[in-house]
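Continuing the batch. This is chain 6 of the set; chains 1 through 5 are on the previous pages. Same settings as before, nothing changed between runs. Recording input and output for traceability.
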Amino acid sequence: MTEARRPSVAIDVRMADAPGVGTYLRNVVPRVLAARPSWRFVLLGRESVIERLGWLELETVSVQELDAPIYGVGEQFALAMARTGRADVFWSPHYNIPLWGRTPLVVTVHDVIHLARPEYTQSAAKRWYAQLMFQTIRRSAASILTGSEFTTGEFLRLVGTPRAPITVAHYGVDERWFEPIEAPSPDPRAPYIVCVASLKPHKNLVALIDAFATLRDRIPHNLLIVGRVDGLRTADTEALGRVAPCAGRVELAGEVSDTALRSLIAGAAALVHPSLYEGFGLPPLEAMAAGCPCLVSHTTAMPEVCGDAALYCDPRDPADIAARLFQLVTDERLRNDLRTRGRARAAMFQWSRTAERTLLALDRVVAHGRRRSVT
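Output for chain 6:
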């Protein structure tokens, strides 16, 4: 294949350094790059981040500097100015797609929470922006990827039937989560229960802390909440108010490194994930891989992800959260059973399979575009 005939794919990687979507990008993008050595890739983002991630080591990769903030008019102007017109495909790993341009779009939709739970989005402008994006995706995308059957169903229910095919590409678990942690130093907060969640309303931390408050005199465990606290557009200030009365037993630990997170989860008596809305739910799956038993919501994508390898609760009922949590931390036989089931369940989800499904979508769009260019 000559240089002029090599397919070209532009990828928006501005969020590669972030949690959430960033975890997805850091695991899927390098696998896609490595799997198509005959293609050319243009990565839109900050060159310093892309270089640190090692993606520039491939000769097939070039960078176009783009650091426009997400979710705003400014990013649309920046994307419109980006030199992607010669690309065969533009892959957007989130719903904030470019509204202008004729390059065929492959879009990853992680969830549609802005439409399904508008009460959790405190900005009418942000809801309008999301609605505009999703309707444009429905009409214009050449292919759509989702992380779960649940998200696919939500897209069809709340956005409508798209003209493009939808491919479910379940997310995966980094292999390092299965590796044992070598004799970590005793944590002064032990024994503890861990929750991995940012301070956002749909993470349901108010109900979790209320549930824990009813248990704190019956169990010796502390509650450690790990995740972003500051700088959120939709912070749950009510949850902050719940922490003070439980001083000394509930800690907002903020963001920690990947290594520290693995150590914290491996040392926890249990992980609790009482979220009200999840398009996938990666923390419980990672905890399962680390051998940490999990209590999760019985709603949205959680049963699809966790199967029979977790204990379930009603996230809208603090009394049920408390009862299930007490059961989990006091029943050693149950915890051991969930550890065994959890590791087996987590092994079913691999980022290599996510990349394979993503490549199927990219291949279809590239092939279709090149057939049209010939005719």
